[in-house]
Amino acid sequence: MDRRQLSHLAHRDHPVAAPLDDASVGRLLTLALPRGDERVLDLGCGEAAWLLRALADRPEVRGTGVDVSPVALAGAREAAAAAGLTERLTLHETDAARFTAPHAFDLVAVVGATHAFGGLLPALAAARAHLAPGGRVLVGEGFWECAPSPAALAGLGASAGEFDDLATTVDRVTADGWTPVHAHVSTPGEWDDYEWSWTGSLSRWALDNPHHPDSADAWEAAAAHREGWLRGYRGTLGFVTLLLRAS
């Protein structure tokens, strides 16, 4: 199965493709958008869940989303149309690292998409290039809750050097010229909900479409992901969403 289609199916019931619940998303957006009339850019927006939530609660906010996945952007357009938000949402199918815009943004989000830039600090550099004076950046990044075991690394397909612990992650951000003005560390419950949703959505699709040529691939992907999580990185990989201002 195409990786982008697989991700689309896995996130059907959890469109914020990161381990945050609805209340956490709402709290972060309240702090990130204090005026209620900001321009918002989401780099690696996926199905634009952050943007749609921001626009739905704030009729003067305008959003721009950038992603390479046509499947995800089609889902974003469909959701925007259903919510009556199409006129205030602009979507671009392009590499987020190469995106340019004719104006700056009051909030730039890169949540769970720093890999598209080659890591946390390159993602922050890209965000800074789009940021209006006094603006904010919302960045979501993984970190090690504890030293990763071989099983955890295998479950993630990661190396031990791919993430730091939380304190070191924040140190890297502050050394790069940013000040955290708020943050949310995903709880174990948010992680569990996200992972059960990911594997469950994909498994349900496979069960409901047994004759689809991708059904077996979806089933196997869900089973492998569940195994890698439950017997590997559960309790080891954390996720922090930082709200930053330039120092």
From TrEMBL:
Species for this entry: Streptomyces nanshensis
A Pfam family: Methyltransf_25
GO molecular function, one term: methyltransferase activity
Domain Methyltransferase: 40-135
Keywords recorded for this protein, A-Z: Methyltransferase, Transferase
Gene Ontology annotations of biological process type: methylation
InterPro entries, A to Z: Methyltransf_25 (IPR041698), SAM-dependent_MTases_sf (IPR029063)
SUPFAM superfamilies in the record: S-adenosyl-L-methionine-dependent methyltransferases (SSF53335)
PANTHER family, per database record: METHYLTRANSFERASE, SAM-DEPENDENT METHYLTRANSFERASE
Organism lineage string: Bacteria, Bacillati, Actinomycetota, Actinomycetes, Kitasatosporales
Protein name: SAM-dependent methyltransferase
